[in-house]
Every structure is written in structure tokens, then in C-alpha cells.
Amino acid sequence: HRVDDEHNGQFGTDCSACHTSNNWDDATFDHNLSAFKLDGAHTQVRCEQCHQNGVFKGAPSTCISCHADPAFHAGAFGADCASCHNTSNWNQARFDFAHPEPSVGEGGSGITHGGATCRQCHPSTVQQAACTACHDSNNPGDGGDD
User: pTM for the full model?
Assistant: First the structure.
């Protein structure tokens, strides 16, 4: 069956590790035994979405290889998506780093924005801030909650 091998020999010659002779198409593969363990939303992705052109071993495993850097980030965070996001709930990002003034959370300049989401202060991109969601103008001293 070597000519029918869709995997191009990437998994060796022991086809029975994933296939049975009773139902060849009902293959099993435990991705958690591979270098890229599937969790969160990745468990629902069809194999072909990541393994294009019959490439299995050595398929790209970085976030950016499948997901483009969103325009909202404007290249500010690099490729370490997991520092803010997780695969279970991508939209509930956390920002646990030093934030430029005005500070987010306690300390810093004494101006706090704890509990604010990124998009409340940065409606279109993280490179620009708009304080008018809570303040009368883009000058935090012009009223509002802070």
C-alpha cells in the first residue's frame, strides 16, 4: 500500500498504529502523544486545516502560522500569543505586563484603570488610546470616573 500512503512515509510503516483493516477511514491518532498537544478550540479543528498538502510531521505549530497578527495589535506584542490568550477562550485576553502611563491597576501614577478591557481604552488599535469611554475628553483630568 506504499503508493496509497497519504502521509508520504512520515509515520513509518506501522499503519495499524492508527488504522484498522476493518475500517481504514476510521483512523485514530492521539495528538496528545505528539509534540503539539491539542487543547481548547484546537480539538475541534479538522486535521486538514493545520496539515495542508499532506504535511504531518513538522507542520507549523506557532499561533502565527495559522492565525495572522490581528490589526488591533498593530504588531505590538510579537508572536507570543499565549502570554495573553488561551485556546479555550481567545476573546478573554489577560494583560499581566507593565503598562505605559496611565497605569492599569494599582500603583504607577496613581491613575488606575483596573477592570477596564483593552478595547475600552483602545477601541481600534493598541497603538492609540481613547479616554472618552469614561472621561469627558482624552485628558483624564476632565471628569469621568477617574
Answer: 0.58
